[in-house]
Amino acid sequence: MRVKIYQINNDRCDIPHLKFSGSKETEKLTGKSTVDPSVYDEVFNAELDTDNLEEIYAQFNTGRHPLHRGHSLSVSDVVVIGKDAYFCDRVGFNKIEFDEKKTQKPDDLMRVVYVEPGKPAYEAEIKHDLDSMQRAVGDGLIEPIYMDDGCILIGNEESKLRGMQGNRHLDGGGIIAGPFFVCGDAGEEFRALTDDEVTKYLEKYAQPEDISDEETQSDVGFIFYTF
Q1: What confidence score (pLDDT) does residue 100 get?
Q2: Of 87, 157, 162, 165, which has the maximum CB count within 10 A?
């Protein structure tokens, strides 16, 4: 299920204390019963295994998702599930009207195909900086694997040593573990994928693979060269 999370950006909000205010407080501060989407930023846009609001709140309030760019889920945040928007109130969620076209998001997002173990690949966006890319692969050193079509597979260099779940078999042999993403190769930099590249890798990684822990760990090894 595609889930999006929006949070108030204080730099664009001229009403003090609106952020983290419940519905009653918001109505008193703004004089309106509606929520203004123009002061919100998109901080998460990805596929989740659940569409249950309480489960989403628990996941994003006490933990985090590798693609989450905001603070922990809290009062005044808006969660969009499919086409339905919900305001996070002091107690529970209220369904609201929310025009996502009026929201904003960072300019430095990179379009990728994101692949998690046991799940179909999906299109996502990652901030074009090292911290965000490391977080996307499970908080570790990134390992680029260069493909022969101008794309790069970015995984976690320490994934198997950390016991991450096997994800997909690689074309050249071996297994990649943990979450990874595919982006474009721009020489010394990474780039966003094109439409054709997104389509190609969504199809390539559409089917999850059942890879046992034993098979993943057996793929760990060292090669010694003699001179």
Answers
A1: 97
A2: 87
Q: What angle do CA 68, 147, 2 make, to 5 degrees?
A: 30
8 Å CB contact between 18 and 32: no
Structure tokens at 74: 């809290």
| Strand residue runs (E) in 108-213 | 109-115, 122-127, 142-146, 151-156, 166-169, 175-177, 180-186, 189-191
From 51-55, 82-86, 111-115, 215-219, the region with the lowest mean pLDDT: 215-219
Phi, psi of 109 (to 5 degrees): -90, 140
Rounded Cα distance, 14 and 102, in Å: 16
Going from the C-alpha of 85 to that of each of 8, 48, 108, 186, the distances in angstroms are 15, 16, 25, 37
Q: Sign (positive/negative) of CA torsion 174, 175, 176, 177?
A: negative
For the chain, the domains span: 2-102, 109-218
A 10 A CB-CB count for 135 gives: 20
pLDDT of residue 221: 55
Distances (CA, A) of 163 to 33, 60, 64, 116, 141: 49, 23, 19, 15, 15
Token couple for 169: 């078999």
Contact 67, 126 (CB under 8 A): yes
Q: Give the confidence band of 126 by pLDDT, cuts at 50, 70, 90.
A: very high
